[in-house]
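Quick one: MATE family efflux transporter from Cellulomonas fengjieae, structure tokens please.
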Amino acid sequence: MWTRERFAEISSVGHRPSGIDRQILALAVPALGALVAEPLFVLVDSAVVGHLGTAPLAGLALASTVLVTVIGLCVFLAYATTAAVARRIGAGDRAGALQVGVDGMWLALGLGLVLAAATWLSAPWLIEALGAADEVARQAVLYLRWSAPGLPGMLLVLASTGALRGLLDTRTPLVVAAVGAVVNAALNVALVYGVGMGIAGSGLGTALTQLGMAVALTVVVVRGARFAGAQLRPAAGGIWANARAGTPLFVRTLSLRLAILLTVWVATGLGAVELAGHQVVNAVWGLAAFALDALAIAAQALVGHALGAADVPRVRAVLRRTLQWGIGAGAVLGLLLGGLAWFYVPLFTSDDDVRRAAVVALVVAAVTMPMAGWVFVLDGVLIGAGDGRFLAWAGMATLAVYVPFALAVRQAAPPGAAGLAWLWAAFAGVFMLARAVTTGWRARGTAWMVTGT
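--- reply ---
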């Protein structure tokens, strides 16, 4: 974790663009590595399971959607903690900052145990609700149930990572995530093919990896809390404060996950080929989105730190520079994802129809990447400012805009590659544009710039 001298250096840089750029890169580059490692879990699962056949890959698409939805709804454990810890660090209260982090981790552990049990029990119903049947449904339930025991670890990773980001430490999560990605790949291959567990082995490998990552990050945060004099036992008031602060972000994330679930439901209705192709596109989109989110994480920490220190001009400077970085990074990613799609898609499937559908949809998604960079950065800025209530309302509004377009695709889209392309035009185009408009309008004002702790 960073020292008090490093925090002083952050404040002393002031509002110079070159200094802010260095801080953005110092936080974003390690965060990028950690975030990219997370969707690599899904990419590895997709590559390993994809060669078992179309039904297992389609089943993985449904099961991973449910699992990622459960985790995604709890991302407030990271985001709210990052913002709160960064504010306290900016105000000079290191012990209080670590106390917030510890309380968030206790909340994550309790919530993870409950969700693990609920996910295992409700797995058949959840998969059926997404419209799957027969062999695809059986494969999906297998993966979901073998993955469920890893949920407490996954949520602990979120909370502990959020605490470290608030402390301006993105390097430790990077190391843990990198090791986890390697271990996950090895376990998947060993359990799926070596032991012969099939798709169940992929789920088990991911669960074991996440539990190991949680242990490693918990040790780091606990050591820092002891050094700062923070308490390690759960505090009811602190846990409740974390839950209350995270509720608006939960609603905001719920709107995003509902949009993603709606997209999967539409893909399921289009057919097995389209659903399998959607899994490939979604995995690659997730990789790109998490890469852009690295800039959002830098914005969260730096904006929270500046608001805690009551430095509004610095907040504006961070906003301006991170937006420039986000749009530029989105343009580069779009060129790579769209231009090279035909070369990397075969890594996920040997089915020609699935390949064709995935490539066309990836080109459509690639065009929207600069706009996605704008959206992700502004999300990070407003989360870092603690503007969760606005994000909750805006999220539901953008979902309402997207729903009729998604339903129109399900009703009228042609089969095959064209249908999947129309679906991604609706999601990556219409939905992301609505998010860009709402967050951009908010960022132009000053209501979100509340200083202090």
